[in-house]
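User: Hey, my collaborator sent me this sequence without any context and asked if I could get a structure. I don't really work with proteins. Can you help?
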Amino acid sequence: MSAPFVARPRSDAVRVRGENERRDASARPASAVRGGDAIAAGAGQGIAAVPAARGSAPPEIAPEWWDGRGGAWVPERFAAREEAPDADPVGAATDPRAPRRTPPREPGGVEEPARRVPEERHPVLAPLAAYLDDPEVTDLFVNGAAGLFVDRGAGALAAREWRATEEEVRDLAVSLIGLGGRHIDDAAPCVDVRLEGGIRVHAVLPPVAPDGTVISIRVPRGDLLRLDDLKRAGMFDETMQRRLGDAISGRANLLVAGAAGAGKTTLLAALLAEAPAHERIVTIEDVAELRIAHPHHVRLEARQPNIEGTGGIGLARLVREALRMRPDRLVVGECRGDEVRELLSALNTGHDGGAGTVHANSLRDVATRLEALGALAGLDDRALARQAASAIGLVLHVERGADGARRIAGAGRPVVDGTGRLAIEEERWNAE
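Assistant: No problem. I've predicted the 3D structure and written it out in structure-token form, which is a compact way to encode the shape of the chain:
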């Protein structure tokens, strides 16, 4: 397969020509510079440059994806057609305010809630659209020119049909991060963003990544999972499901632990979906990933500093701001720094039903991890132990097996041991 896209910086001559054409375009009627018909809905395996009306790039398309003459990158399978099916009116495909059209369901067809709708993909995502629209895909990894690896729940496997040079992968990384409203370059080579639909993108540029640009993409499911769905998937049995339901109805403060990709966010979202509809859930995340099937869910997301190093808003401040929003349930998507101090303080002052996640290798290691986070927040071991034992009612540890299945591997509650330090007392859930 040929390279999935080509998006190289323009030469000075082409850049000057593009500027001249944009000046000419400004003198023409607005109808003469509309280029929305150049971008078709959907996505394919390859990308082709399709001519469009001249003019400057629409605001939602990164400049490096626009050739200055109206060219835009769109899937080859639509470029090859004489007419795209169900095409939007001119300009609608590139206008974010335009309503999106859903193709009619065939008579007798069955709707698949987990299927991802290709018509909603932004043109920047076109090189990856075939994988993003696959409901079985959970993660995508682009390792520079070494290729693309796709995880469909059984581990990351190489996509042999994918071909891209290092320059093309870097261009893709810059465009993806720009689509998320952030900036990546040599001065800021590691960036994490959230795209529309909950897709999470992390990119690292050389020389921090010495073998080439690395892009890691977490792909959310198309549907919102409940505890029943996770039980059917084998994450826990019926006895455990009843215990989880009791924890939510009893407004126990929960901490979900596990390694990266183990299913912490998925389990937490399913648990919070069981909360009564009249409760107000406020979630705080570094990159907003939690998607909860609940009618009153307020999301707060941290903000990185700008290039001058100002304007950043961290999780610790967002926790303090959230306390002024009268949450019935306060949730920190992932505790990784001094925000653990604010979370424990909030859960110790009457905010029951809260929750959070933390990275830990095992249930026993949760205590060690919390002590490390407490040290970042200025809490010594004994102060952290008393805070955690008082604030957290239930700790769940999830793991991903060699077969790719996610399971609850253990549960317990924080206690203060004989030395005054934090420990996790394991519960036996399978006993009635």
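In plain terms: The longest helix spans residues 12-26. You can pass these tokens on to your collaborator as they are.
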